[in-house]
Specification:
By secondary structure, the protein is mainly beta. It is built from six helices and 34 strands.
Length: 655
């Protein structure tokens, strides 16, 4: 799908530039700001929506009549029991509860002594415990064994939110229903009156972090770097440090050593960067940044993390079947300097053994482009070319790949703070309805010029404000304003592009084949602008897109799972006025705002208490200044022996 906004009879294509962000947290809001020094002057705006932007839908697996989501499902001890399983169809390293892991793979998740090195299967709420000095507590009426066990920790008396078999209690968050209309979402946001942030889910490993740096003679461990080598002879290679994936530096220019690849890390996302070309012929030749030979020819990947110098310990990097395979070619003709089959996107795909974690195959998947210019690039007038690089791991069957991309979850099920917000659009085929998921999730524009097409990811739970500018002549401003006014299907460039998706994943493990896994994004009517020739102004133009995403906790309080329950977006208006004193062109700014809102009143913890006894009860504030349970606690029964002792003494001492 391609949308073109052209204000010139000879539109010029503008390529997408890097997606990178510098994020800083404040007490109330998170700003994501991208400063990009690259400048492209153009009077046309091309928003290229290609098939590679979305995952393919397997309609043979689509659920024809999916069961509507029941919020009570989260109030079960079977809910969210393997949060480390973040990749469908492949084994997540050290995730011992992952059903995709074979027994042979699980045997690899052990140290030399045979102890299991497993990620936590559930999220443990780090603030579930409150402690005071033992000297401040005279007695406790907590269940036998519980108090004595935790009271020995560094002289502290601690109370935590318990859902152990000792009491038979389980504490869950209130079940929250989806917000199913625009008014439901907007009224909920107004009622909230504040922006709140979820606590980051911590997938801390049970074993010491230094374990991941150990090498293995049979394969790789989680986090190991990937040794590479160059060809010497049919039996020998020369080790060359580790495999690195190009990515953006601070200035967005490509850095060859942007990031070392590490084995089976959860996320190795595609990263865009811009190559600064000062000599197109050199860049197009073997060894140049635009030639695919540079990235694989005579390069070998170590089968295990040990590496070595023997050719038998390595596998060659090959071009994947179905990939573009022509090497770049430089040419000059009619005053045009060109490099055909130049690298546009390059993905390393490393396949590994299910039983040993040894790398069995190394491939590259390449998409090319033709780079041309009417002026020979030089040091003083360089040519900037956008490229994208990524690294993915897959088992030997490639079962985890969709569109040659490793499909990832943003949580299982609940979202992890900062993870990609799953986004997509409804698609139908015959009687089947599915959601085509955007590969990079919810994104908005940022950077210097909107025409650079810099997209930044929206991280779950992280409020974001970003902007970019359009450079227009007075005639272009008038044409844009009147076009939107007269054509109800027209939108402000780039603002429209970020409204293509109409669904957000309820949880981080939402599936395309199940339409009930997704929440509808409601949109307010687009404002209609007015052009005034007298002062060359366009009033009431929707130059800001604001999205409110309502989120809630679910599941038990010691294994909380974040979900999306509603979303709404609207265009905020302003007036763009052309000032001739500033020159023949003026800059006009577009803005995106994303707010995450949740209602504490919708998320009160409910606990199933034992049948109350007939014995006298302690007051609620006996352990002031802290409570025994989340929220207001019911009174606690006094053990009989303690009651007799207290009545005999004639008083209760609480310090």
């Amino acid at each position: 799908r391609t949308m073109t906004f052209a204000f010139s009879s000879t539109p010029l294509h503008c390529t997408k530039t890097p997606s990178m962000s510098l994020i800083s947290h404040t007490a109330t809001i998170l700003f994501t700001i991208l400063l990009c020094s690259l400048i492209f002057h153009s009077h046309a705006y091309y928003l290229n929506e290609t098939a590679s932007t979305y995952y393919n839908i397997d309609y043979s697996a689509v659920i024809e009549s999916p069961t509507a989501w029941n919020p009570e499902t989260a109030r079960s001890d079977q809910f969210a029991q393997c949060v480390c399983n973040l990749h469908p169809n492949i084994c997540d390293a050290f995730c011992c509860c992952d059903p995709d892991c074979t027994n042979e793979q699980k045997d690899l998740f052990k140290d030399s002594a045979g102890n299991e090195l497993c990620l936590l299967p559930t999220y443990r709420y780090v603030n579930s415990m409150k402690c005071v000095s033992q000297t401040e507590v005279t007695f406790s009426n907590l269940p036998p064994g519980l108090a004595s066990e935790i009271a020995s920790q560094n002289g502290l008396f601690c109370v935590y939110y318990d859902q152990s078999p000792v009491t038979g209690n389980t504490q869950y968050y209130d079940a929250v229903s989806d917000l199913t209309s625009e008014s439901d979402v907007t009224s909920t946001v107004v009622t909230a009156m504040q922006i709140s942030y979820p606590k980051k889910m911590d997938f801390s490993q049970v074993f010491d972090a230094t374990t991941t740096t150990q090498t293995s003679t049979t394969g790789y461990r989680l986090g190991n770097k990937i040794p590479i080598a160059t060809y010497v002879s049919s039996t020998t290679v020369l080790p060359q440090n580790y495999l690195s994936v190009s990515g953006p530096g601070f200035s967005a220019e490509c850095n060859t050593f942007g990031q070392f690849g590490t084995f089976q890390e959860r996320i190795h996302p595609a990263r865009s960067c811009v190559q600064k070309i000062t000599n197109l012929a050199d860049a197009c030749a073997s060894g140049g940044a635009l030639n695919m030979l540079t990235y694989y020819d005579s390069l070998y990947i170590a089968r295990t993390s040990v590496g070595g110098t023997s050719m038998l310990s390595y596998v060659p990097i090959e071009v994947r079947s179905g990939s573009e395979s022509s090497n770049a070619t430089y040419s000059t003709s009619g005053g045009t300097f060109s490099c055909s089959s130049a690298v546009k996107k390059l993905t390393y795909i490393l396949s590994y053994s299910d039983t040993t974690n040894a790398i069995t195959k190394a491939e590259i998947l390449v998409e090319t482009q033709t780079v041309s210019t009417s002026t020979a690039p030089s040091t003083s007038a360089p040519l900037y070319v956008e490229q994208e690089f990524s690294l993915i791991f897959d088992d030997a069957s490639n079962s985890g790949l969709v569109n040659n991309t490793l499909q990832s979850r943003s949580g299982n099920p609940g979202y992890v703070l900062g993870s990609v917000v799953k986004a997509g659009r409804v698609e139908t085929q015959d009687s089947l309805t599915a959601v085509q998921e955007r590969i990079n999730g919810l994104q908005v524009y940022s950077g210097s010029l909107c025409t650079d097409q810099v997209l930044v990811d929206v991280g779950f739970g992280e409020d974001l404000i970003s902007s970019c500018k359009l450079t227009l002549t007075q005639a272009e401003l008038e044409a844009l304003c009147t076009q939107i006014r007269d054509d109800s299907s027209s939108e402000v460039p780039f603002i429209s592009h970020t409204q293509l998706d109409d669904r957000l994943g309820r949880y981080g493990n939402a599936q395309s084949i199940n339409s009930s896994d997704w929440i509808q994004i409601y949109s307010s009517a687009r404002p209609s602008p007015t052009w005034t020739s007298a002062d060359a102004s366009c009033s009431n133009i929707g130059a800001t897109l604001k999205m409110n995403i309502v989120i809630a906790r679910s599941g038990s309080v010691v294994n909380e799972q974040w979900e999306v329950i509603g979303a709404h977006r609207e265009q905020l208006t302003t007036t763009w006025k052309f000032d001739t004193t500033l020159g023949t062109t003026n800059d006009f700014y577009l803005q995106w705002r994303v707010n995450f809102v949740h209602l504490p009143s919708q998320e009160r913890g409910q606990k199933l208490y034992p049948v109350p006894t007939l014995l006298p009860q302690l007051p609620n504030d006996v352990f002031y200044p802290f409570n025994l349970v989340f929220g207001a606690a019911p009174a606690q029964s006094i053990p009989v022996a303690l009651l007799v002792a207290l009545l005999s003494a004639g008083m209760i001492i609480v310090s």
